[in-house]
């Protein structure tokens, strides 16, 4: 297939594009420097000229806390930008994969979220990503909404590298232990996206299997990197306030699309050591 990837220079895009190419696909990489998704006419012309067989829409405003200060910018990119590309995909009958988030949920459940569970985002980021989902459903018959969570990868700032960096400096580290979710390696998400093309259109949860807290995630990072002498202690969300409210529980049922998060983390650590 000829696949157009937006946000190709992002943390996910940099892992996704080579995986698609290894799968035999022709990949058209775009980012803000080649395609501004907020300009509807430009998006329409770009897609119509290229006529891709599918679009994977990774581009997004992902600064969760800063979005609380810049709601208009977050909405422009996540909602209107997605609407622009969804419109032309729907018009040309091109399948689209839209990368969404666990932040569309309020975190009030105590069992894993299913794709058809009620959404109730509590942050600007979550609300704008949900508006993107709504746009994709409105304009496209052929769509995959891929919700993911707690993303980390070799090509961007992420929790794993932050923890390792703090440990190397000898810092005493406190990590929140009352937020529960699913850590997801970008390579796992990329492979999960490839799997979606063999599934019926619809909404899926493409995240690491299993669950943990941020504190549990940090403990596993230090265990797998051999940094067992780190001074690590748990804390509550109230002890570590952030501008954007985090879901207390955002575990999602991924229908075995991705591996257990600990196995994925093992492979991530192995690769970073080369």
Automatic annotation (TrEMBL):
BP GO annotations: dTDP-rhamnose biosynthetic process
Molecular function per GO: dTDP-4-dehydrorhamnose reductase activity
EC id: 1.1.1.133
Keywords of the record: NADP, Oxidoreductase
Coiled coil (UniProt feature): none
Recorded metabolic or biological pathway in which this protein acts: Carbohydrate biosynthesis; dTDP-L-rhamnose biosynthesis
PANTHER family membership: DTDP-4-DEHYDRORHAMNOSE REDUCTASE (PTHR10491), METHIONINE ADENOSYLTRANSFERASE 2 SUBUNIT BETA (PTHR10491:SF4)
Function: Catalyzes the reduction of dTDP-6-deoxy-L-lyxo-4-hexulose to yield dTDP-L-rhamnose.
Family according to the record: Belongs to the dTDP-4-dehydrorhamnose reductase family.
UniProt-recorded name of the protein: dTDP-4-dehydrorhamnose reductase
Organism: Candidatus Scatousia excrementipullorum
Gene behind the chain: rfbD
């Amino acid at each position: 297939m000829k696949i157009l990837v937006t946000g190709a220079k992002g943390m996910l895009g940099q892992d996704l594009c080579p995986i698609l190419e290894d799968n035999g696909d022709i990949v058209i990489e775009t980012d803000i420097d080649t395609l501004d998704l907020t300009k509807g006419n430009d998006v329409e012309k770009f897609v119509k000229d290229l006529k891709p067989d599918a679009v994977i829409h990774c581009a997004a405003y992902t600064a969760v806390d800063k979005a609380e200060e810049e709601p208009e910018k977050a909405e422009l990119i996540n909602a209107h930008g997605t609407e622009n590309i969804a419109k032309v995909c729907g018009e040309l009958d091109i399948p689209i994969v839209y990368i969404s988030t666990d932040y569309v949920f309020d975190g009030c459940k105590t069992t894993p979220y299913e794709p058809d569970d009620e959404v109730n985002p509590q942050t600007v980021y979550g609300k704008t990503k949900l508006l993107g989902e709504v746009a994709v459903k409105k304009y496209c018959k052929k769509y995959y909404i891929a919700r993911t969570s707690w993303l980390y990868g070799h090509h961007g700032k992420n929790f794993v590298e932050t923890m390792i960096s703090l440990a190397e400096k000898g810092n005493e580290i406190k990590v929140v232990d009352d937020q529960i979710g699913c850590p997801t390696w970008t390579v796992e998400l990329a492979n999960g996206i490839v799997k979606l093309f063999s599934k019926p259109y619809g909404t899926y949860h493409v995240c690491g299997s299993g669950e943990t807290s941020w504190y549990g995630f940090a403990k596993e990072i230090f265990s797998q990197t051999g940094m067992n002498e780190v001074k690590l202690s748990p804390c509550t969300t109230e002890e570590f306030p952030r501008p954007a409210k985090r879901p207390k529980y955002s575990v999602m049922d991924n229908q075995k699309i991705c591996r257990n998060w600990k196995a994925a983390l093992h492979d991530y650590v192995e690769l970073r050591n080369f």
